[in-house]
Design a protein that fits this description.
The protein is an alpha/beta fold. It has 12 helices and 15 strands. 30% of the residues lie in helices and 13% in strands. The longest helix is centred in the C-terminal third of the chain and has 24 residues.
């Protein structure tokens, strides 16, 4: 009698194989970046979207609904990353990016950190911000942290960032700037009242006088201010850790009005938030140009996980946020920079978000061989030469096909409404 492989086992098997492949693969999106040791260190700007799907961005949108002109222009002028993987939910992805290690190795592989939890990124883990700061970079986090908030010494300005502006938790009301601090189960069954607290930070202080202004407009203003104040001759790392388009679905009318009415409550606002994110990127790029920094800026865009069920356009990928299917862990993305020698193409190599830690440290002049990271430190990688592990990629594709044939799910839950 034929027996199907249980879904959990199948998903775990796929993810473990993918981690193995990524551990021996080499990041090639930065193929042949400036190789001279005397080259000027680039400014690094990382835009990370929060909870959005594969087709939520116009270069992947088969429906033609989504409006992201700034991103699409930069993506097509740069390098579209077609097989870049992240973790299935917020906190683990951020931990992987900042440490270059898989989240289970740093104690954050469980799920997202909730407001009442005392979990955090361990102090003995070296962060990307700390490594870049040691190499002369000014380091700024604009947006959410979501890597622990129970003690001051595990918050951003104690983990390598010169400044932080935004929430410590995973989400806030965009206008009230507050977050529910008790757990959702207790609120659902009425066991405790809904308790909220203000969570919009300026370094270690709380911002009280901006309530009523959309949080993303505040993040946009701070990013522009940081750029205007920065010395263009000194390298800068700016992590735009956006809230958009994480719930609650709230956007200014100027973005909502760009989309037609929908029978599904919240969908129009969700799409408007992605267009607002696109507009924010356009503003930041313009500020970099006006400051004379754009020609030496490496810009990376990714999402932290797949889009939410019913809202995120994860199609044609199976699954969504908090699943190990590709709709949960395969991120739309691109990288842009005038120092890239090959641009205007789609890169189909396997990349994991952990790969960017050694890549950025290397670009900053650091030695990546001493780090406990999850990719090869082969000389080919250090020199940014293209490497195609075609045999391993073929095995990965064969494994995916085998697992899908035995999976017990027959219809994708990621079909957009």
């Amino acid at each position: 009698m034929h027996s199907s492989i249980p879904l959990l086992y199948a998903a775990t098997r796929l993810w473990n194989m993918m981690k193995f492949i990524l551990s021996v693969g080499l990041l090639v999106a930065l193929s042949s970046v400036v190789e001279s040791e005397s080259a000027k260190k680039p400014h690094i700007v990382f835009f990370l979207a929060d909870n959005s799907g594969w087709g939520d961005y116009s270069w992947n949108d088969e429906s033609g609904i989504m409006i992201t002109p700034n991103m699409e222009y930069l993506a097509r002028e740069g390098v579209i990353l077609n097989q870049t993987y992240v973790q299935p939910i917020c906190t683990p992805t951020r931990a992987a990016f900042l440490t270059g290690r898989y989240p289970f190795r740093v104690g954050l592989g469980h799920a997202m950190i909730l407001p009442p939890q005392a979990s955090y990124l361990r102090r003995n883990e070296s962060t990307l911000a700390e490594q870049l700061k040691q190499r002369g970079y000014a380091t700024h986090l604009v947006g959410k942290w979501h890597l622990g908030h129970c003690r001051y010494d595990i918050t951003p300005t104690f983990r390598g960032f010169d400044t932080h502006y935004g929430p410590l938790n995973g989400y806030i009301d965009y206008y009230k700037h507050d977050v529910a601090v008790n757990d959702a189960v207790s609120r659902l069954f009425g066991l405790v009242p809904n308790i909220t607290a203000l969570d919009f930070r300026d370094n270690t202080g709380v911002v009280f006088d901006k309530v009523g202004t959309h949080a993303s407009d505040l993040l946009r203003e701070r990013a522009v201010d940081i750029i205007k104040r920065h010395d263009p001759e000194s390298p800068m790392f700016l992590w735009m850790s956006n809230l958009l388009p994480h719930f609650p679905f709230q956007a200014p009318d100027r973005f909502i009005n760009q989309y037609p009415n929908s029978s599904m409550p919240g969908l129009r606002e969700y799409r408007a938030m992605i267009t607002m994110l696109d507009d924010m990127m356009g503003t930041v790029v313009q500020a970099l140009k006006e400051r004379g920094m754009w020609e030496n800026t490496l810009l990376l865009f990714l999402c932290d996980n797949g889009g939410p069920f019913g809202f995120g356009a994860n199609w044609p990928l199976r699954g969504a946020i908090n699943t190990l299917f590709e709709g949960g862990v395969r991120s739309p993305g691109f990288i842009h920079g005038q120092m890239l020698q090959k641009t205007g193409y789609t890169n189909n190599e396997l990349i994991h978000i952990t790969d960017f830690f050694p890549t950025f440290v290397n670009l900053a002049g650091g030695n990546i061989s001493k780090f406990k990271i999850n990719i090869s430190t082969d000389k080919q990688f250090a020199n940014h030469h293209e490497y195609r592990n075609t045999r391993m990629q073929r095995k990965f594709r064969e494994a995916k096909q085998s697992i899908w044939e035995h999976a017990i799910i027959s219809k994708s839950p990621g079909v957009p409404f």
